[in-house]
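Supplementary Note 2. Why include the ligand at all?

Several targets in our set were suspected to adopt different conformations when bound, so apo predictions alone were not considered sufficient. For every target with a known small-molecule partner we therefore ran a joint prediction. The input for zinc ion is given below.
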Amino acid sequence: MQPIVIAPSILAANFARLGEETHNVLNAGANWIHFDVMDNHFVPNLSFGPMICEALRKDGVTAPIDVHLMVSPVETMIRDFAKAGASSITFHPEATLHVDRNIQLIKDLGCQAGLALNPATPLNCLDYILDKLDLILVMSVNPGFGGQSFIPSALTKIRDIRKKINETDLPIRLSVDGGVSEKNIASIYEAGADTFVAGSAIFAKPDYKHAIDSMKQAVSL
Ligand code: DX5
Ligand code: ZN
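The joint prediction is reproduced in token form.
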């Protein structure tokens, strides 16, 4: 298992002060910044694109930026986000006919490659490509919006993927995204996740450090 990562989703930040909010969560102890890209096509919502990622880099954000593409098609956005300073780029298998090719493209551009699995996406999408991935993102809500409730069946999926990862002996991260909070993070960790994306559970709180510390404490068993 990889060291624990807390990755606040800036989808839940105050967009009018995005740079400041991003620096604030990092100063509060966040490890990565989770960057949710929505296109009003693959998901029914619109967020932000590569120019905003680049602006955060220019504003001095040096922490890993974990780009979660909820867009279709994916190819152009992979290229643009790699240029804009993304550290990892994760896409959904339903968003492209060419999963293997796009994993390779992400790696060729010098980023870490991730695959995101929607709540009803079966695990056989990992067949033949698991060993090429740096990260698997289990969606514990249906993608498109922050602030939704955690879907309990995600725990079974996390356990099943953890087994598969352990069989490979590779340092593949297992990330969970959607409805993660200080209340359920311990059970998600016990199921086998090492990377925790949280939007509202951090940005809706008045004290980001307290929110992140509570999450870290809940998993330091
Ligand atoms: C959902 C996004 C999530 C979301 C998480 O489509 O991928 O990253 O912002 O937000 P919370 O933690 O509020 O569920
Ligand atoms: Zn996300």
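The pocket of D-xylitol-5-phosphate (ligand 1) is lined by residues 9, 11-12, 34, 36, 68, 70, 141, 143-144, 146-148, 177-180, 197-201 (CB under 6 Å). The longest helix spans residues 153-168. Comparable summaries for the other entries are listed in the accompanying table.
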